[in-house]
Design brief:
By secondary structure, the chain is mainly α. It is built from 2 helices and no strands.
Length: 37
């Protein structure tokens, strides 16, 4: 699901690497909260 969001962000911004990094950070936070890290 997050990869789809990344693809949408990159498509809208014309390949903005910043969006990819933001999605990666959000993914890390979500996984951390999900497993109580």
């Amino acid at each position: 699901m997050s990869s789809e969001v990344a693809n949408l962000a990159v498509g809208r911004c014309g390949g903005g690497i910043v969006w990819v990094i933001l999605v990666k950070l959000v993914d890390a936070v979500v996984w951390g909260l999900r497993f109580g890290i």
